């Protein structure tokens, strides 16, 4: 069964007023079996405008991820977030299609040290985007990246969202950075920038 994820971007305006959200959210997420993949952490934003805090939470499936967000426990906590911060919150389903790196690794990196690309994309030229997908696969295979999210079903439960969302896992932060800045990915990026608008962050995973 495909997993579900939260992807959240946050700018905290009032640190003290935000604390009750963190406590209440932690309890609700734990009750639904959620696991933090990203929780703040060092990042760079090579494309677009980023929020100062970024979160990715993994759940056993999409319905559980949505149910956790909609639960009375989480919604009670969420009111503190709304009052003390600005941001967006997305629920998205795991990608279960072909993986470019399937021939060189058995699955996504996980645990301490893992790092991620988190991408929000609006494609305005679908035909022009296709060469990016092909060239991107070559770069991802070379860096042993793994798509956790790649398009697919999603719900923008708070704030605006792009139409396409991507999360890629890498073994560590330096590998994730090197993959993005590699000649292979920069060649692919030429196609994407001509066919789409995006925000991209490269971020350390939760320890």
Report on the structure:
This protein has six helices and ten strands; from the N terminus they run E-H-E-E-E-H-H-E-E-H-E-E-E-H-H-E. With 207 residues, the protein is α+β, with helices and mostly antiparallel strands. The strands form two sheets. A five-stranded antiparallel beta sheet has the order 2-4-1-5-8. It has a five-stranded antiparallel beta sheet with strand order 3-10-6-9-7. The mean pLDDT is 97.
- In terms of quaternary structure, the protein is single chain
Helical amount among residues, as a percent range?
25-40%
How would a textbook summarize the main sheet?
5 strands, antiparallel
Give the number of helices.
6
**Total number of strands:** 10
The poorly predicted ranges are: none
Supply Rg. Answer: 17 Å
Instruction: Write out the strand line-up for the largest beta sheet, numbering strands in chain order.
Output: 2-4-1-5-8
Give the overall shape, derived from the CA principal axes: globular
Mean pLDDT: 97
Our measurement of the CA-to-CA distance between the termini, rounded to an integer number of angstroms, reads 26 Å
Could you give the order of the helices and strands? EHEEEHHEEHEEEHHE
- Based on secondary structure, the structural category is alpha+beta
How large a portion of the residues is in β-strands, by DSSP E? Answer: 25-35%
